[in-house]
Amino acid sequence: MTEEPTFQNPNSHSSNNSQPIRATEASRALEREAQLPMTGWQQEVSKGLEYGLEGADSIQDRSIPTFSRGELPHYAGINTFLKAPYLEDVRQVGNYDVAVVGVPHDSGTTYRPGTRFGPQGIRRISALYSPYNFELGVDLREQITICDAGDIFTIPANNEKSFDQISKGIAHIFSSGAFPIILGGDHSIGYPTVRGICRHLGDKKVGIIHFDRHVDTQETDLDERMHTCPWFHATNIKNAPPQNLVQLGIGGWQVPRQGVKVCRERATNILTVTDITEMGLDAAVEFALERALDGTDCVYISFDIDCIDAGFVPGTGWPEPGGLLPREALYLLGKIVQRAPVCGLEVVEVSPPYDISDITALMATRVICDTMAHLVLSGQLPRKEKPYYIHPEAQPELVVR
Ligand SMILES: [Mn+2]
Question: What percent helix, strand, coil does the chain show, rounded to 5?
């Protein structure tokens, strides 16, 4: 048993208060911040002054350029994700630890559309964030390199052509070694994103951890492969077995019975919100890791923003009350990322036309930034070499069921 560190409040002068108290998360956060470098920030300032010209004579803070370059000010600038550099030449994507890519596709939507504006909405509100997280003691600018690779060119009139574009784009990013972060788009993109990753897995396998209120496992919907269908098709790929599909937060009045039958037949792993709260968050994490990693080599995270209670995420296609609280979802996500070899993340179903005060897009930003921070804390980022599960030139094999 290790001894808990103690924290003496340096601001306390009272003799009654001289007992050491248990170290708080906040006290540890204050200490961690002191260990983070400022190198990336200093480089950003120098570059800003060089490219954006020194500020006017009346500006006393000489780190401020005339033209906004980089993070500051948060209300200015070109909205890439977290103001990361825009990577125009995607052939260079392997030079970065993380590649953020938008998939502005909402033709798989069966009710409220608008997720084609999801990538733009998420990028816009991401400007609110700095790259530093207090509790986690992570500064993404200092610790990893991120690029924004822009958007995949999707074809609104044709899901299948869009899927082909998405798979090709995600396969390209994944095989480069950059960690792919995908901004949806509706959930139909879950099939082509996983298919793209599987193209470079060879004989390795991926477990899918799926946060959602909906099962998304039916074969077709409205005669096409819509956003209710990605896991039927993804788990037909030999590299993505259905017994490694973990579905967290499922429940309510919007779960199609056709999909439920498929979950039963293929023995996917479902926890409802009540399951998660009754067993406790840590037990739910154990359940997810055990099932997703049983016989697989890595985990793909598909985060449907509607897994969170509809009150927190109004800007989505099928809002459903009774979902996870934001802090529950973030806790589950953080613990999973800390302990699993994660090969990619998608955040889907953010529909800015239905959003209020950008709150849904902000939640998506939080999910993405937390994932990156936990990848840093677990040593998965920055990349020292390509992860072992990436095969140089493999193609996915379909299972006939
Ligand atoms: Mn959903």
Answer: 40, 15, 45
Cα 321 to ligand 1 centre (Å): 12
Question: What's the 17 CA to ligand 1 centre distance in angstroms?
Answer: 51
Task: Tokens for 80, please give them.
Answer: 């890439």
DSSP string, 108-163: T-SS---GGGHHHHHHHHHTT--SEETTTTEEHHHH--EEEEEE----TT-HHHHH
Token reading at 225: 């492969």
- Give the global pTM: 0.94
Helix (H) or strand (E) holding 342: strand 342-348
Q: What is the distance in A from the centroid of ligand 1 to the CA of 311?
A: 15
Tokens of 57: 């004579």
Q: How far apart are CA 278 and CA 185, in angstroms?
A: 32
Here the tokens at position 219 are 């074969």
CA of 255 to the centre of ligand 1 (A): 9
Distance 29 CA to ligand 1 centre (A): 35
The one-letter code for the residue type at 268 is: T
Give the chain's domains with CATH numbers.
Answer: 23-77 (no CATH), 81-377 (3.40.800.10)
Which pLDDT tens digit goes with each residue over 216-255?
999 999 999 999 999 999 999 999 999 999 999 999 999 9
